[in-house]
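FIELD: query
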Amino acid sequence: MKTPIVLAAFGTTTRAMKTYSFINDICRERFIGHPIFWAFSSRQVRDFSNRNYNTNMQHPHEVLRKLKKEGYPWAVVQSLHFTCGHEFYRLIEEVGDCGIRTAMGLPLLHRPEDYKSVVAALMPHLPEAADEAMVMIGHGTDHPSWSSYVALDYIFRKTKSSGVYVGLVEQGYPTMASVIEEVSRDGYRKVKLVPLMLVAGLHFEEDMSGDNHSWRFAFENAGIAVSLENQGLGFNRGIVDLYCRHIHDALDVIPDNQGCRLPCSKIFVV
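FIELD: result
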């Protein structure tokens, strides 16, 4: 009986299923024989999708309690969040009360090597024109993990000396105003806006590419031409491979997968 893998996403009400299907197919290729399940941590998203699209989205605790009833002693829960922020820690709390021993795979950005892997996965998408910059736009958070975006921006610039910027839709830094000011000061006349999000959903449609108060609108008002990448990072094979590495890390702490003996605890975060 191979350990089941639960892929835990925040969820989104738009464009999500094709992205999740792409990730699911890669995970099935990489973890042959391991049952793979999906769970969604946002109650609002789950209820909206179940009500309007006749889906059957489940919360992590619902999936894990079902696995416990089916006789699985362990499960891996792989967070599909980007940073170790509010949603990730809520996920840990939820997972810890399900009666099944759990190894938790960490979010995308955790170790320095993770940041370097994300940079490597995105480098092929850099604009070829010398006068065009790439601006990656993440969600943002008021959790201290907002600094993960600054760290990513820094590592990008250490890898490529110019032409790459990171900004945030909501809380945190760098802000829209600061990024536009920096891009203008550096002399770029064109920008490529890239969603630094798993799914190019509502934030892409409204905050990045919308007609009012969006990043596209603000850049164009500053006299800078805009092109848009309309796929989220969930379609980037290098990004999904990094999540898979975190799943491997989680599997490695489970006795059946490594032969080690661990303290009798319900949850391990690796």
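FIELD: remark
Confidence is low (pLDDT under 50) at residues 258-265.
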